[in-house]
Amino acid sequence: MTSLKNELVGTWKLLSYIEVPIAGDDSLFPMGKNPFGILIYSSEGFMSVQIAKENRLSYSSNDKLLATQEEMVSSLQGYMAFCGKYKVDSNNAVVTYMIKSSLFPNWKNQIQRRKIDFENDILYLRSTEPVLSNGIYVNSYMTWKRADKSIDNFFDENILLNDFSLK
To answer: Within a 10 A sphere around the Cβ of 142, how many other Cβ atoms?
Structure first.
């Protein structure tokens, strides 16, 4: 029998990210309706997640540290990332994140929990406690698909794979 942790280990590609206000208002899409995201769980107990809004502004400069105020706001508000350690509670189907680093500095050294559910190669994660998002408390719901090991299925058609040398 496979353990819940063993089912999590690997790389997952984001299918959807929805926030549901606890007050019962309409669902929100904080990273738009077509975000890109990667979630990685290692067998050693490390995790990393990165989620990007589809249409963040590109910098007018080719210097990653030189941006206009508008470009910085778009970059920060259109990206979510954190990493750290994780533990799985198989009895309650919950994964606990011990966040070591986060784009949102307030999450550093904090604990977050997600309820786990699987359906074939689809992973459903939902927050177990509400978080503040744009001034309101919400629960987050994320749907992930196990990433194919082939690089051809990982990139959009718009990216020229000929530019990559995978040795």
So the answer is: 22
